[in-house]
Amino acid sequence: MSTRRSRRAPLGAALAVVAALALAACGSGSGGSTANDAAATPDESAEIVIGSTNEPTGLVRNVGGSSGVSQTMTRNVFEGLTSVDVDGTVIPTLAESWDVSSDGLTYTFHLQPDVTFHDGTPLTADDVVWSISEAIGPESKSARKSDLLVIQQATAVDDATVQLDLSRPSQGLTFYLASVTVVKNGDKELTSDNGTGPYRFVEWVQGDHLTIEKFDGYWGEPAQNAGVTFRFFQDTTALNNALLTGDLDLVIAEDSPDQLVQFEDNPDFTITEGTSTTKQLWAFNDREAPFSDVRVRQALYKAIDREAILSAVWDGYGQVIGSMVPPTDPWFVDQADVHAYDPDAAEALLTEAGVTGLEISVDYIPDDTTEAILALLTKNLAAVGVTLTPNPIDDATWYQKVYTDHDFQTTLMGHVNPRDVLWYANPDFYWGYDNPQVQEWVTQADQAATEEEQVDLLTQVNETIGEEAASAWLYLNPQIRVARADISGFPVDQVTESFYVADIVRES
């Protein structure tokens, strides 16, 4: 596998790349790579303050388009029948166990005993049925809705048992169910009362912070700290200044190697570099001309010097990719060279498609990274006769204009979700890629009899969307975190949407 890296020397002599494997405690058992100091004595009264640039856009359930609420509260405050652990594996959570019928069409989930919501109300099968039914209901805008529609009916067999009847077998059902937060029957929003996780939601002050506190009545393994506050920043300089001055304990993700210089060779801080699933892409609205022409998409992709963009943004960290699939997925195929930088070939394809004087608008949420990408993208495209017109917008506008209304030509966006290659089988998703063969392969993969068959089919999906340049994938982010030296237990890798915080401790 080619990593496509031109790496500089590692971060400095004092860079700590923490590779210790630790069992991350949770109610149902957990494993994965975490930053850990076995000699530390945790201060269970400590409140941890975490800096992030990924703020939720709202607390309404079953709305896609933003990972901020999943990052802060999924698995920490709100749980599903299953969870995706810090190493990417699916683990039982509110479901203690489950049985699958011989034909694969009926799943029977047995709930954990003695689970209560944060207001003390006992969890019952009716709550689970409501939560799942809403996620697949007509008003749901969940990004996983199309995957979950394999569920024909959810039934409460008794208070502790839920039965799901499927239209066909589904290899990925337990993975998809991890995205369904279970709340009290009838609730449509996330509140301080209707979570079941190791933390209780306290408050969200939009534009500033979101706070959660340890829930003493948690059914499983308790959190190892007293609570967590996520503080939100739009400016990464301000974010890192807050860490330097002691206002933060941990930064979830650094977006530039330039930000690391101030922490190198400083014994007060630990820097970790892990694996991510964050793909930076230039997405086309494939349902509209000229992007409905595969030759135009291929031409635009070949016009981009992705190595130069990665170098400008990450100075050798990260990885150039040629499709939506990260190397951590079993159906990864290295496609970085399929549409390698070739301006002459790009011009030839545009000529073949009969396109001249092309002007393209790009909607984007401005920050230092997207501005750097945009500058190089504009230069690359100008070299093949394409004019790029930037249109900076805020998060809320992006969600409505691009994600919901599909009222755009192109957009720059980072996608953090695992297994999001499957969204290329949904022609109603915001980028509008519509290939019936890909849709059939994804359907066949989900009902495959074996994991090997599933992998083979999704590999074909990966290769096809890459060849057809369904989007222009630029690079895969590295996952670089910086923490104060007395902070440990946080996940090093980011291969799931949730940032699990129950194992984070401060040395006393």
TrEMBL record:
This is Peptide ABC transporter substrate-binding protein. The lineage of its organism: Bacteria, Bacillati, Actinomycetota, Actinomycetes, Micrococcales. Coiled coil: none annotated. One of its GO terms (molecular function) is peptide transmembrane transporter activity. Belongs to the bacterial solute-binding protein 5 family. One of its GO terms (cellular component) is cell envelope. Pfam families: SBP_bac_5. Residues 89-416 form the Solute-binding protein family domain. Its main location: other. Transmembrane segments: none annotated. InterPro entries: Peptide/Ni-bd, SBP_5, SBP_5_dom, TAT_signal. The keyword Transport applies. The keyword Repeat does not apply. It comes from Cellulomonas hominis. Residues 1-24 form the signal peptide. GO terms for biological process: peptide transport. Keywords: Signal, Transport. Gene3D superfamilies: Dipeptide-binding Protein, Domain 1 (3.90.76.10), Dipeptide-binding Protein, Domain 3 (3.10.105.10), Periplasmic binding protein-like II (3.40.190.10). It is found in: Cell envelope.
